[in-house]
Amino acid sequence: MNQEERRQKRHSETKTARLVFVVIILAFFVAAAGAVFGLRQFLFNDDGKENDDFLADSDTEHLETDDTGAEEPPADTGQAAPPVAEDPLYQQALSTVSGMTTEEKVAQLFFITPDSLTGYTNANVAGDTTKSIYQEYPVGGIIYLSGNLQNTDQTKTMLGKMMDIAKERTGLPLLLGVDEEGGSVARIAGNPEFQIQNVGDMSAVGATGDAQKAHEVGTTIGAYLKGFGFNVNFAPVADVLTNPENTVIGKRSFGSDSQIVAGMVTSELMGLSEQGIFGAVKHFPGQGGTAGDSHEGTVTLEKTVDELLAEELVPFQHAIDAGVQIIMVSHMSLPNVTGDNTPASLSPKVMTDLLRGRMGYQGIIITDALNMGAVTASYSSEQAAVAAIAAGADMVLMPQDFKAAYQGVLDALANGTLSEERINDAAAHVVKLKQQIQTAAQ
User: Fold this and answer.
1) Measured between alpha carbons, how far is residue 102 from residues 98, 107, 399, 403, 411 in Å?
2) Which of 239, 368, 394, 401 is catalytic?
3) For the domain with range 88-441, which CATH number is right: 3.30.479.30, 3.30.1490.190, 3.20.20.100, 3.20.20.300?
4) Among 70-79, 116-125, 128-137, which stretch is predicted with the lowest mean pLDDT?
5) Pairing between strand 326-329 and 364-367?
6) Catalytic residue among 210, 293, 295, 425, which?
7) What is the pLDDT of residue 19?
């Protein structure tokens, strides 16, 4: 091979090497591009949206924060709050409800007096007659009034037997309730036969500005109620007394400052809870600004939702955030919320949209007593019970005619006015609380 041939060979080899190098580089870039594209497809859906499954598991330190490092809260759109994460206790209760008959489910939605159950006035025993009637009407709760409560021994015996009757019939505890606010509303401490000191008016407690005083009220009341066998107290009163002319709430309220009332309410709830008593906060959305008496007729408050949220609803929101399990809804009319004079206790805009949706409440919604004039003046027992449950109530308290109301709900379910899903949901809220009571007793 001469010199010229050797030069041409070297030139050819150099060109080949360069070509191989270029091919290798091109292959590298193609591979890199493919990897980037694949990663993008993993991070984003086909429409370019972020892959939530990946982001949910990734480090969240990149989220936008304010100067304090806290996550930026979403803007208030005025719409219903997003649903909370699935509650396993609710699902367990729903499973229990699925094994009940329709009649048993519907019965669980009623919280009535022993008089309404048995037909006797001032019923003060739970004997064979009560047991026989409860077999047919296994209601979710019994509320005891002054005429049912005579003395310590009688009350303990009656409540103990009533609980046994319920457990034997349903396999679940019975909600045994009473109005024991203190002051002028005290079915136990207001009766000298029990020899229990009354804790006094809540207005005096609120005037101290010391939430620990409200906690002591809850502890004191809770302790003696538990001793008698109760597990529900229809207290504390969360109404903010903004109208000095209001005589129905009056001294039952902790005061006129919504923040002070909120602190007192949550503290009393804690005291009750520590003694094994579930407090039922009332009277949603707060009737301390009204002037009438819903026992007699329609009571109206002209405030808007935003105005309510700024004042009347503050104690209720604090109670919800603290984990309250029962909220009682009043019969007051809120035309600037509902668009008409429908009682709050019969309004889906109040119970479902506002209390459940906007405020995020997940516990039992119970109406105030349906035998009050604000309801009975315009609705039959059947109509009121059906309307309340359809609007979002889980329990109806003291309908004027229990058996008519009970049959009315069954009929509404049969004709499609009420859905099976709504009945199951309401019953599940009730059963969930009962299963918590059952677990705590084990």
Assistant:
1) 9, 9, 20, 15, 11
2) 368
3) 3.20.20.300
4) 70-79
5) parallel
6) 295
7) 47
For the chain, what are the domain ranges? Answer: 3-57, 88-441
Quick: pLDDT tens for 186-237: 999 999 999 999 999 999 999 999 999 999 999 999 999 999 999 999 999 9
Give 367's Cβ-side CA count (13 Å radius).
Answer: 37
53 is catalytic: no
Active site residue 283: no
263-284 pLDDT, tens digit each: 999 999 999 999 999 999 999 9
**Among positive and negative, which fits the CA dihedral 344, 111, 103, 434?**
positive
